[in-house]
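Form 12-C: Joint structure prediction
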Amino acid sequence: MTLKYADRMEQVKGLETREIIKFIGKPDIISFAGGLPAPELFPLEELKRISVRVLEEDGSAALQYVPTDGYLPLRKKIAERMHKIGVKASAENILIINGSQQGIDFSGKIFLNPGDTVICEKPSYLGAIGAFRAYQAQFIEITIDNDGMKVEELEKILATTPKAKLVYVTPDFQNPTGISWSTKRRKDFIEVINKYSIPVIEDNPYGELRYEGEEVPPIKSFDTEGRVIFLGTFSKILCPGFRIGWVCADKEVLRKYTLIKEVSDLQCNTMAQREIAFFLNEYNIETHIEKLKQVYKRRRDIMIRIINEEFPSEVKFSIPEGGLFAWIELPEEVNGRELLEKAQKQKVAFVPGGCFYPNGGHENSIRLNFSNMPEEKIVVGMKRLARILKEEMG
Amino acid sequence: MTLKYADRMEQVKGLETREIIKFIGKPDIISFAGGLPAPELFPLEELKRISVRVLEEDGSAALQYVPTDGYLPLRKKIAERMHKIGVKASAENILIINGSQQGIDFSGKIFLNPGDTVICEKPSYLGAIGAFRAYQAQFIEITIDNDGMKVEELEKILATTPKAKLVYVTPDFQNPTGISWSTKRRKDFIEVINKYSIPVIEDNPYGELRYEGEEVPPIKSFDTEGRVIFLGTFSKILCPGFRIGWVCADKEVLRKYTLIKEVSDLQCNTMAQREIAFFLNEYNIETHIEKLKQVYKRRRDIMIRIINEEFPSEVKFSIPEGGLFAWIELPEEVNGRELLEKAQKQKVAFVPGGCFYPNGGHENSIRLNFSNMPEEKIVVGMKRLARILKEEMG
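Section 2 - Result
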């Protein structure tokens, strides 16, 4: 029998990136698909020591319920780290969540009525599109160039779209394009936002992974009116398996996130919160991040070199200054999904670019992750991809 | 400035049980409030060994992403345990979630349009009421007696309420009343459900904690049509800090839960999933549960003895055969919330019963948890309560 589902379920589909995780689980696959960090860089020995020490020092408290907003020492540590990137925050501005994905979902729940419009970058993060669809959102995509979202286009849309309720952006090494917004663009953006009083979700999972160029402060650091809700995560700088991220927002709006956290799943894993707080206390996470950056930069360079040297010259790409992804635009007649089928036969995976456009189109693009595979596999996989592309584009 | 929130936020309030967690965090409080398990019974030494072994044997895989549906060996183990209580299930029927609370939230997301009606027991679990309110649900409460939900009343409502989209029940040692449904009532219930083809959420966090009387199979075991969605959790039989529970449902409906899990927070904590799977492999959880039952039974007995001997005779209560809660009905003129204020001044906490009635009323009741406090504190706290009640009802 078929049960009767809510209307919103018509819009809920599986995320292609998560589907591919099953395929790439096989050991002989060379995957440029998921946004997976390099597992060999997880601080395994440190976490082994920490997991024992948390249970020895905190005892059963590490396994019991904690208040919904999260483990206070961790919230304090996160607030300190927010300070370093220019955001004035104390523990009262921090809510612990299951990775930044949960912050995106909660944002939909808090701000969107059915049929409301989310304004996002074109293209945008697949997981956000999926999360907002479950709240029956419509999408308006705003063009991005190498400096970020085009604010004149944004302003035109805000002036004419009363149903626009939320702006979702990933200004640092965007998923999927790798683009990072300039400081000027961020300031111009916040000026438009303040004119139209719309809440902004600044999703920032990759901001600390910069391989070249100058540091750029988050949009939240320019927000004087409490309209920007910042989402951070330990998934890319420590490990994703803990599912620990955070919302940083003004107290009034954070209270809404806390209420929603409470009725959604009560709280995050207590042990993981304490382990991360321990890690931040006992080890220097900045040193750890430096190590990640060195390795990821080399992997990025290798990937870019092969694109430069061996991909057909019609292919367009730009060099991401940080993050985990390179973005390729193919000639219009080449379809990313069809390309993936051919690549999978040769045991190479990536994500077709079309799925990052909520309103469809743009099938002639692909997203390549460079953080997950060791260098020699990047070489082999990229050479295979080059061959497939050459055949395809004859 | 105030941002514009979605309509659903008007119905979202903080859960009184979670608010009280902050108050009971102080060491000199005697708490009968939260549904907290006894922390001194958590298998701390075992989990210390396991956390190291998981990281040694599984390495970085224990810290990486896993597929949304969860860690396969854990799903298999859970399916085996479902078999033992009469539910035919394989790993394909199991989705890992952040405690059963997340399963309740997902049920609202999957089945409820704004204004739809949830049918529940009178009274019902506060966390479920809160979760469903965030989907703008209306509630119809069905009377329960000592055998469970009154099915004639249920049938009348189903026959006349087209907007009824979901039935939510906790048939085992219900939170808050401690009532457990008889086998006959479960069978009668499923017959009515099949007549009206409505999905049922069977929330079962306490089913394995029976202190006397015969085992009763879950409603899901009588479900031949795939209409019952069973929610289970390790929070009460192992520890709540892991935030690991499960949905057990027919494949078609489970697919919806998996899609929602994916867009909500991708997956559960990888490490916690592996640790529980290890625990189930290496230790006998049934032996562990036996130990819990012995301790909780003694605590229940002490609480009930003092109610019997020292509470005013006008107070009504029944002896729960399992679970974590005793439920007290006071004379109509006594208000549970006012009583709590007085009790808190004497450093005793409980949950006023009114909050378990989604449509209000019934303020003359209180819920007492007996699992969290050691015996001597139960004695002291209950004697204090008895004194307060005597003064009140003087």
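Section 3 - Comments
Chain A has two domains: 7-43+287-393, 44-282. Residues 285-310 of chain A form the longest helix (26 residues).
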